[in-house]
């Protein structure tokens, strides 16, 4: 696995979590809308309550989101530790801003006091430096 691929795992997992949260919000809105519209109907014991089924799905989804957030925190901790293993402060700052804090290129350039073109150049150098210190088991994936 290349350095950029490895570091982008945070962005991918973060996007997955945001998608799950969006889905959960939609489910909650649907439960609220359905719950008030159904009123009180008599149901046989064999029929499953659709609102109850949605609530169960929502709770399951919230557990999954919590698990994914825990994974994200763990992944960020690991990657921060690895990035901090570099011996160049500029590389550490750039890689942290881009891959841990998920900043856009323009934001990174402003924050670091460079023009975007310089940021791209430094980024390439930082990735090569990071690749040299990446654990072998990660490179082989």
List keywords for this structure.
elongated, 141 residues, mainly alpha
Describe the structure.
With 141 residues, the chain is mainly alpha-helical. The chain has helices at residues 3-7, 9-38, 50-83, 89-100, 105-112, 116-133, 136-139. α2 (9-38) runs antiparallel to α3 (50-83). It is elongated and about 60 Å long. It starts with a helix and ends with a helix. The mean pLDDT is 89.
Indicate the mean pLDDT.
89
- Overall structural class, as computed from helix and strand content, comes to mainly alpha
Number of helices: 7
Approximate shape: elongated
Indicate the percent of residues in helices.
over 70%
Radius of gyration: 22 Å
End-to-end distance, in Å?
5 Å
Instruction: Assess the beta-strand content as a share of residues.
Output: under 5%
Query: How would you sum up the major sheet?
Result: none
Low-pLDDT ranges: none
Say what oligomer this is.
single chain
Counting DSSP E segments of at least 2 residues, the number of strands comes to 0
Order of helices and strands: HHHHHHH
Compact overview of the structure:
By secondary structure, this protein is mainly α.
Task: Give the topology, please.
Blueprint: H1 3-7, H2 9-38, H3 50-83, H4 89-100, H5 105-112, H6 116-133, H7 136-139
């Amino acid at each position: 696995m290349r350095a950029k691929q490895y570091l982008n795992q945070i962005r991918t997992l973060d996007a997955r979590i945001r998608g799950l949260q969006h889905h959960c919000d939609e489910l909650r809105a649907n439960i609220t809308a359905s719950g008030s519209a159904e009123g009180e109907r008599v149901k046989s014991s064999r029929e499953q309550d659709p609102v109850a089924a949605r609530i169960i799905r929502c709770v399951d989804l919230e557990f999954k989101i919590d698990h994914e957030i825990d994974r994200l925190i763990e992944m960020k901790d690991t990657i921060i530790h690895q990035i901090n293993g570099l011996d160049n402060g500029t590389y550490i700052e750039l890689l942290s801003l881009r891959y841990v804090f998920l900043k856009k290129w323009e934001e990174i350039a402003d924050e670091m006091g460079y023009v975007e073109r310089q940021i791209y150049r430094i980024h390439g150098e930082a990735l090569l430096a990071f690749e040299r210190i990446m654990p072998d088991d990660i490179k082989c994936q």
